Amino acid sequence: VVTDVTVRLVAVARRVAREPLILILITAGIFEILSGDPISHGVLLFLAAGLVAREQASRPSGEPCLPTERPGTIAPILDDAALSGPLRLARTMPWPVGLAIAVAYAAVVGGFARFTWPMTAAILVPGGLALAAVWEDRSPRPRRPEVARWGLAVWAAVLVALGLWELTQLLLQPSLTVNSYAHPTISYLLDPLLNQHRIDRSVAIFAWLSLGWIVMDR
Amino acid sequence: MSSHDMVVAVYLLLGGCLVALALVGRRPGSPIPSVGTLVTWATDTRARRLGVVLAWAWLGVHFFAR
After folding, report:
1. What whole-number distance in Å separates Cα of residue A111 and Cα of residue A205?
2. Average pLDDT, stretch A30-34?
3. Which of A32, A126, A133, B41 is 20 to 30 A from residue A93's alpha carbon, by CA?
């Protein structure tokens, strides 16, 4: 039994090592809970890590990919008819219509106070719809575009530096659950803006929706 | 310069780097990948795409939801 458990643990460790996204999500989930945020927020990240691990395990040799139009370009050859309903709608919708919907949604939702049930519902609806659309979507993913390794390395360096700087400030606080003016995290710096001004909340929600659009449109 | 100011300055510097990379990446023939290319590269399997969408949803939950 011990050998069986060890073999399984080694397999899990190898899978995590092969997929840095799992490690990033688990680390973020642990610090989310340690820093006193609601357990459900951390659970969401653990769930994400679990889904990625489960999906990776079911496709050990990778998924079928679609060729991009030409090496180095971002435009994959996608058949819209193969996409799930919500994704097909998003992809075929004229961009001014999508923009108008996002602006109107952000303007209305910005009127809700943070951490209230109306705001929670307003965040969970687009988040849930996006997740459901991606979950349903069984069309092949486009092949990874050919990009310069050092170009990727530059992006990774800045993102990792930002993550480490944020983590450093979190660890330099008096405790993980007590904010510090001398060592502010990004959340701490944004709190006054997002708590007090409706327009700031609307801008932030619009930025969040736009980021989601970029992710869903790929 | 206080500790607070230095921390904020580094955040601004790194944020500025991200904006600069995004702008440089939009130029034709740039060796720096654009944000769109980066997302396509990072979500080449259904699993990674699910993970990235959930991470995006978490951002909204973290900053706004109960």
Report:
1. 11
2. 86
3. B41
Cα separations in angstroms, B62 against A78, A106, A162:
33, 17, 18
Q: From the CB of residue A64, how many other CB atoms can be counted at a distance below 10 Å?
A: 8
Angle formed at CA B7 by CA B6 and CA B13, multiple of 5 degrees: 85
What is the ipTM, given to two decimal places?
0.92
Indicate if the pLDDT at residue B14 is higher than 90: yes
Tokens 């489960």 belong to which residue?
Answer: A54
Runs of H (alpha helix) within chain A = 2-18, 20-34, 39-58, 85-92, 95-109, 117-136, 149-172, 186-196, 198-216
Chain B residues whose CB is inside 8 A of the A208 CB are 56, 59-60, 63
Say which of B32, B37, B62 has its CB closest to residue A74: B37
Residue recorded with tokens 């075929």: A92
Distance from the B50 Cα atom to the nearest Cα atom in chain A, whole angstroms:
7
Pairwise CB contact (< 8 Å): A52 & B66: no
Q: Is A50 on the interface with B (CB under 8 A)?
A: no
Q: Model pTM?
A: 0.78
**B39, A214 in Cβ contact below 8 A?**
yes
